[in-house]
Design goal:
Helix content: over 70%
Largest sheet: 4 strands, antiparallel
Number of helices: 14
Distance between the termini: 32 Å
Strand order of the largest sheet: 2-3-1-4
Structural class: mainly alpha
CATH topology of one domain: Helix Hairpins
Shape: rod-shaped
Length: 470
């Protein structure tokens, strides 16, 4: 269709356009006048966090968190939650308000024309208020690029709207504080129970340490005491090595004595003895003198008797000195053997003592570490308990009410001017649409183009309708 044909259709069916337009505008106008008015009350909140707060024991930076979109959206949903709605109901006593009870009864009875909108008979008034009434008329909007939140509530009573909006702000602020404090209270309870358990274990470990020290007869085993014991053990080892070396030498000497079978003069100890060698020299001299004198004088000669007496004296001294050496060898062997035995016993005894000392040291160290660990754990738990108790007592939240809602003086809806303006546009488009619809349904021939298009024959001419009727 050409542009003039569109205008022709509208012109021919102008009454349809006018009727649709007028009907839409009048219906909207009358409906806006008769529709129950709603009043909007707005309470303004701001989400803030003071990072310099000295009571921020948890040291959790929240500045970025409170500025995030996720955090703001979370707070919006919390405000609209059933938990906050129930608190609002309790604060205002809405479930006992006569007007609210009347609306609840109307909702349960339902509208005859809209039976599907009838409320469940089993739903009580508190559930209806939280899930139907308040959630329907509450609106929470965050201000863009800020931390402001606007709590809006709509009702037919301006005072009621302001009261509910302000109560929502207070209930949300209280719940926000509860969410911050409650974890610390629960943590405090947990730390309190843990504190008792850890203290019991620490006391038990300390008691075990005291009992063990009392049983062993010492207070503590320092590293110096243990090192002294090791040094004594090392000293006994060295003395035992020396004693075994001397015992070996004494054993060798004793073996030579036994193998000599009484011929002690060939023993190294005898040969190396200067006094014995002198006696042997003297003995040889006397024997040679006697031999030389025996050829000259008789055995009863005084000089012979004198030399023989001297020789006998030398032999006696020689035998006595050799006997002393043999006795000394035997005595050295017995002494060396006895010392080795004594040192071996002392070594075994001291080894046992050091071993027991090492075990005791390990036990004491283990019990001391266990006691110290429990004490450290107790101190840590006690610190956390005190922090939790302090945090749970801090009556501070990061939600602040900037502006309380005031009863609005102008109604929020219906907006008469806006509704009429929209009705003008809708009525105009509706009328034009109906005009083209009726034109589409009308199958009469209205122009030459229709004949040429539908029948495929040219139009030779047209005869205008005569006003005279001829």
């Amino acid at each position: 269709m050409k542009p003039y044909q569109y205008w022709k259709v509208i012109k021919e069916r102008k009454w349809i356009v006018i009727i649709a337009f007028v009907t839409t505008v009048l219906t909207t106008f009358i409906g806006s006048l008769l529709w129950p008015p709603l009043y909007e009350a707005i309470a303004t909140l701001v989400l803030d966090y003071d990072s310099s707060n000295p009571m921020n024991l948890s040291n959790v930076p929240m500045t970025g968190l409170t500025q995030s979109v996720e955090y703001i959206n979370t707070q919006v949903e919390i405000i609209k939650s059933r938990r906050v709605a129930v608190d609002v109901i309790d604060r205002l006593g809405l479930d006992k308000h006569p007007e609210v009870i009347r609306k609840f009864n109307e909702a349960k009875e339902g509208n005859p024309l809209f039976l599907w909108r009838r409320e469940n008979d089993n739903m009580d008034i508190r559930t209806w208020l939280a899930e139907r009434f308040l959630s329907r008329y509450i609106k929470v909007e965050p201000a863009r690029d800020t931390r402001f939140l606007y709590i809006k509530f709509y009702s037919s009573d301006p005072n009621f709207s302001a009261e509910v909006a302000n109560t929502y702000a207070k209930a949300y602020s209280a719940y926000n504080l509860e969410m911050k404090v409650q974890p610390f209270k629960e943590a405090g309870q947990w730390f309190s129970e843990k504190l008792k358990d850890v203290k019991s274990k620490a006391d038990k470990a300390s008691e075990e340490l005291r009992e063990y020290q009392k049983k062993k007869g010492f207070v503590s085993i320092g590293s110096g005491y243990y090192d002294d014991a090791l040094q004594r053990l090392d000293q006994i080892n060295r003395e035992l090595v020396d004693a075994k070396a001397k015992l070996y030498e004494a054993t060798v000497a004793m073996k030579r004595v036994n193998e000599s079978k009484g011929n002690y003069e060939s023993l190294p100890e005898v040969i190396s003895n200067a006094f014995i060698q002198n006696l042997k020299t003297e003995k040889i001299r006397l024997e040679m003198a006697l031999s030389e004198l025996s050829g000259k004088v008789g055995k009863k000669h005084p000089q012979y008797i004198r030399l023989q007496s001297e020789l006998q004296t030398v032999n006696t001294k020689l035998n006595a000195e050799i006997k002393n050496i043999i006795d000394a060898i035997k005595q050295d062997y017995d002494s060396a053997n006895l010392r080795v035995n004594n040192l071996q016993k002392a070594l075994a005894s001291h080894k046992s003592e050091v071993l027991n000392l090492n075990i005791s040291r390990y036990e004491v160290d283990s019990l001391s570490r266990e006691t110290e660990a429990f004490k450290n754990t107790y101190d840590t738990v006690l610190q956390k308990f005190n922090e939790s108790a302090l945090q749970s007592d801090i009556n501070r939240t990061n939600v602040f009410i900037v502006d309380m809602a005031v009863p609005p003086t102008e109604k929020y809806s219906p907006k008469l001017k806006l509704n009429v303006a929209l009705a003008v546009l809708v009525g105009l488009f509706l009328g034009i649409g109906l005009a083209f619809l009726f034109d589409y349904l009308d199958d009469t021939i209205k122009s030459e183009d229709v004949i040429e298009k539908n029948f495929g024959i040219p139009v030779l001419g047209t005869i205008n309708q005569s006003n005279s009727g001829r």
